Amino acid sequence: MAMSSYETCVSQLDDGLNITVQNSLLIQCLAKSIDENTGTTSDLRDGLDTFFIIYSASLVFFMQAGFAMLCAGSVRLKNVQNTMLKNLLDACGAALGFYTVGYAFAYGGQSYDGKTTFIGNANFFLIGEDDFVFWLFQFAFAATSATIVAGTLAERCQMTAYLCYSVALTGFVYPVICHSVWSYNGFLSATAKDPLFGSGMIDFAGSGVVHLTGGTTALIATKILGSRKGRFFDERGNKLRHPKPFPGHSVALQVLGSFILWFGWYGFNTGSARSIVTAAQSKIAALAATNTTLAAASGGVASLFTNLIIMERLTGEAVFNLNFAMNGCLGGLVSITSGCAVIEPWAAIITGFVAGLLYLAFSRLLVKRCIDDAVDAIPVHMINGLWGLISTGLLASPHLLEAAYGNSKHAGWFYSWGRGSGDFTLMCCQLIGILFILSWVTFLMLPFFLFLNYMGWFRSDALEEIVGLDISYHGGSHHNMNEVKPEYLEAYRKQRDEQLKNRGHNGSTTFEDAEEDGVHVSVDNVVANF
Amino acid sequence: MAMSSYETCVSQLDDGLNITVQNSLLIQCLAKSIDENTGTTSDLRDGLDTFFIIYSASLVFFMQAGFAMLCAGSVRLKNVQNTMLKNLLDACGAALGFYTVGYAFAYGGQSYDGKTTFIGNANFFLIGEDDFVFWLFQFAFAATSATIVAGTLAERCQMTAYLCYSVALTGFVYPVICHSVWSYNGFLSATAKDPLFGSGMIDFAGSGVVHLTGGTTALIATKILGSRKGRFFDERGNKLRHPKPFPGHSVALQVLGSFILWFGWYGFNTGSARSIVTAAQSKIAALAATNTTLAAASGGVASLFTNLIIMERLTGEAVFNLNFAMNGCLGGLVSITSGCAVIEPWAAIITGFVAGLLYLAFSRLLVKRCIDDAVDAIPVHMINGLWGLISTGLLASPHLLEAAYGNSKHAGWFYSWGRGSGDFTLMCCQLIGILFILSWVTFLMLPFFLFLNYMGWFRSDALEEIVGLDISYHGGSHHNMNEVKPEYLEAYRKQRDEQLKNRGHNGSTTFEDAEEDGVHVSVDNVVANF
Amino acid sequence: MAMSSYETCVSQLDDGLNITVQNSLLIQCLAKSIDENTGTTSDLRDGLDTFFIIYSASLVFFMQAGFAMLCAGSVRLKNVQNTMLKNLLDACGAALGFYTVGYAFAYGGQSYDGKTTFIGNANFFLIGEDDFVFWLFQFAFAATSATIVAGTLAERCQMTAYLCYSVALTGFVYPVICHSVWSYNGFLSATAKDPLFGSGMIDFAGSGVVHLTGGTTALIATKILGSRKGRFFDERGNKLRHPKPFPGHSVALQVLGSFILWFGWYGFNTGSARSIVTAAQSKIAALAATNTTLAAASGGVASLFTNLIIMERLTGEAVFNLNFAMNGCLGGLVSITSGCAVIEPWAAIITGFVAGLLYLAFSRLLVKRCIDDAVDAIPVHMINGLWGLISTGLLASPHLLEAAYGNSKHAGWFYSWGRGSGDFTLMCCQLIGILFILSWVTFLMLPFFLFLNYMGWFRSDALEEIVGLDISYHGGSHHNMNEVKPEYLEAYRKQRDEQLKNRGHNGSTTFEDAEEDGVHVSVDNVVANF
């Protein structure tokens, strides 16, 4: 048994001192033990928070796998490889982009006492930054925002275009929004020293910063890119009476993706508390996790059963639509991301429920308007990102705002009315935030995509699209291609050889084995030829 | 460098005081630093435990993905969508059910000093409850208990029936068991102030509460629901000489599911320590994780090699049966769930080994008795849930009971014999617990399923079952349906149109595109029609 | 509100004492509060570290699922079941092997003050060891090292051989290396009291211990086992002009596997800090996580685009090769595993970039040399494990070495030159470590595999390989076998019946249903026959 601190201190006293002197020395000695405890505790706080953020960042990173599986399941077999590569490159690109400039633009040189800036301008290449877990967490968010777009554009977008916008988004467009809403020096930030209208915009974990940004980009991009061949129009460009369904190739992977995303959201939302060393922060993190669960659940239920009831009325048949249930859950998750720390559980259920209905309505609207979204990312991320911000403006509770932001002057509109004031300040900040994000994204991405399109870098070649992007970009497909008609394959092969000859190459060697092998061209024989 | 607490206190002293007065003031001043440390530490304890439970709950939630993949892999392609929806709805339903009433029945108003109750009756809608992480963790457990049943009934159960029993289970049946075994006020609880026979039932993480409950429900349900068409009987109802195998459509997904479950179990079992801020609790959590690993491993090995040896004797051929290895692991995990904190690693290996053998024997028995379990959930969860409780009664070690429950008066029977007493108290509590769970589940679920069956709400229509539930409930299948004979599809389509006409609808529009498209009916053309 | 510690102590004083005596008593009383705080804090340190390691170990364990999915996706459908079983048995075997002897050989009886030993020799069956989380973490590493080999040998290795080498590797070969590099008493250990040349070998999370060991074993094994039939040679043994590609059956599962591995690596590398309770350790863990991310990203990008540029030059066509991107990421992860805690982020990017190039070059070299590696595990794990150790010898920064190992006398060669000394000590230790691992593995595994091969226990029967291992070892396949020609199936069936008859069994019963069912033989009819 170790000696008590008192015994230790007594044992260090010289003999024959009088009691008063002894007391003085003991006090001095014990003070050291106190300081040691303070030091240990401070280290523990560091350790706990570091671990908390590593955990959260890992889970947010794992959402990349979720998006990948959701996309993989949602596309046709002939495009799986292409889609998977885009998902993988998102993660890689975001890491490098956020390391070099993205983080610097978003948080570089932030200081609580500094003045409001539009963009950060320090810590490029992480120079001078040693808060590595914060970088890690933020990188994972940036990667998420880029991945959202990938799904929408699946099956018809060129790799080059994809690489360009992915870098632009994570390197510049997203960081500026991130800076404005989350940095101490952002003009919308609720954690700024002197926030907008004394309130600032509340976007706890990024309904706006991440999802609205990604979703809006997706909408702009798909409008310019156009729909997949045969989805809404026939070969002569006449509108089909019924849009042709392009069912994904694996429901199981879609559901796996959804569950991984839901799982990852526990890192996304709770980790946004950024620290868990005070009792208040613990409560915030716990509330965020609970609200996340409830909103997801009510979103899925709302979407599934509303559709079921409508369909039953119209066709006499009860149809349980898995896609709607799944995307309803995701919509609920997106919508709660903004307010998870500042609204009550009952409000989370309402938020999720409305999210499910909004998803359903806008998914339908997109189809009506012939806007092609291969994974319904627009109604899930854009619409519900937007709704999440408004829901927070409505339902943010004063005492939770106090706990999470230390500022409850301007609560949600619902509570303001309850207080009899009708104070619209918070909601106003939310609306300004929404307008800012919509404008900023449109202002940058619209000309960007128009330019890509004008240069012919955006849309895949028509024949490539029909035979599938796996063959055209990846040297072959790993799968039996009975989705694709042989005559299209033949036509594609001819066109390709032609092009290669024009560039002075003889492409035929690469396809030799392919001839023997049907259409089984792959990695290895490509390798064998260089 | 910050000043030490001593220097700070000295700097606050007025000049010219005598040493004794100085000492008094210093003491007073340092006491404040002590209190600050105490406060910081207390906050850290909160934070660490909150984080620990958020982590554990996330992992337990992720088990939903594990069950989903296990089921997806185990069913035939034509039922994947149906199965996936059930898994997703489990998570949603459990969240809403446990928020509204389940949690209130299970833990509402629990108090260590309160008297024994049969059911909780406070905190409905989480009103008055602010321990959100505890709710989150418990919700994830409730969801698990419902999901267990989904697998067994796959490929032949109506959605309506599924929704009904899923709500009943998570909203009422499970919470009462949970209350009895885990609430301070439960009559079987080992953490009660005055536990049953001075011991109470030891079910650390829920072999009984979760798995026996789910597994027993599955057994009752499948007995009433009957086996899948063609599994044990031919079209005229004659028993087949050999049961027809219904192999699942993806081994890879089954294994993925098993690994996710094993991974999730590290949250399930270690999180059940509920707190990790004392050295004793850390040891418990660590032991639980280690035992979990060992039991899973020995369960898988036992099941695989026992089967291999038997088959080799009978047929002369060594067959490595993946399904048995996989389910042996899961059986081992279920069996260790009860005792993971109170038995030694060697005992975990024995527990897992026996679990593997029990799984094998009962899986065989079910087939012999023509009880159809699409994923072998009954031998995995029911039989090994039961065995887990008995194993704890046998092998719970006194010093671990002391560490985990602060009560080692009644140890496992094995140790009692070692002590020369043969004290059967703990085992007796375990047996009472088993009887209680079996009776309670049977008492409620048997009439419930009989009623569903009597009303015709339980079993799918025969033709629907043959063409697959994906077409009948979900407006089509995402897959090539070469599993299904065209004449059955044709018959099903006629029957369906007939029904719709009788209800005054003209269903044909919905199937128009389907005609053009082979049997590719899907989400989008369904959407296009409302 | 609770009383402050000062008030509490004052309230315990008797009346009428003089101030000096009061002070003495107060000091004594407050000292108790200090000790209580110290105790609570010490418990918290225990708790935080235990939790940190449980978390990390869970993630490392989850990598088993990653390897399984990577393998499942990379093999042909006819071998999926076989591959999955091997992955599952790895986890089980490693748990049992590491429990019984592996841990004892690796860390048994380690003591900082003990002398250097070649192998541990205490704590067999975990007797006398109560640091269970450390065991758990180490078990997960051992399992990883065995799993690496599984992929390379896929599609042609007998189950028996697999079981033998898997046990040998995790039970003896790996533990000795682990002991040498990581135990306090290892002759290469950087944490030894008196490390080699005053420096020791730096392998923070196991580029060498885990990946080089696994990868080297894989290389030896595949050299002896030979390539898959038809991969490099035709039926008469003539070398093919172009190696025949054996594309895996699911790109989506491959990518899922890669993402799971990347996710798991956050446990692998950060958890190797082993503790997170001091500020220095927090920084190490955070840096490790960040470097892990950056190396993976730059590895993937390097491999993808270098290949793209080369191919574009050669064939005129830009090919985005998903497999190369994926394995480039994994190569980057392997290479950063050794140095993640001691190199700067910019160095992590360089390390990963070189790893991507090395992967590409060696993947190509293997094909040229007709060395068949079904998942490219050799260039990923062996080559980049080796490169990771060298990269650490080059780029380990003095101040990070100081933080992580408390010893910065011998920094990376790059920094040594900067200091003007050219001190080669660290690099020398790294090279000795590499030589040791290569020699130890070769010395043990080469005769081992030669022996297996000589006895005819290594390679599957030729016909079995052609019809796929799922039928031959697992009593049938779960899948439509249109990969396999019917005449081969027929030939295989005849050969099998012959063998069974020779052993005195009549195998035909087992295949009865199979006849009715095409080649759908499965679990259930196998069960039905014992």
UniProtKB/TrEMBL annotation, chains A, B, C:
InterPro entries xref list: Ammonium/urea_transptr, Ammonium_transpt, NH4_transpt_AmtB-like_dom
Keywords tagged on the record: Ammonia transport, Membrane, Transmembrane, Transmembrane helix, Transport
GO annotation (BP), single: ammonium homeostasis
UniProt organism field: Trieres chinensis
Chain segments annotated as transmembrane: 52-75, 87-106, 132-154, 161-184, 204-225, 246-265, 285-306, 318-337, 343-362, 374-396, 424-452
GO terms of molecular function: ammonium channel activity
GO cellular component terms listed in the entry, alphabetical order: plasma membrane
Name of one Pfam family that matches: Ammonium_transp
Ammonium transporter AmtB-like domain boundaries: 52-477
Protein name: Ammonium transporter
Localization of this protein: Cell membrane; Membrane
Family: Belongs to the ammonia transporter channel (TC 1.A.11.2) family.
UniProt topology in membrane: Multi-pass membrane protein
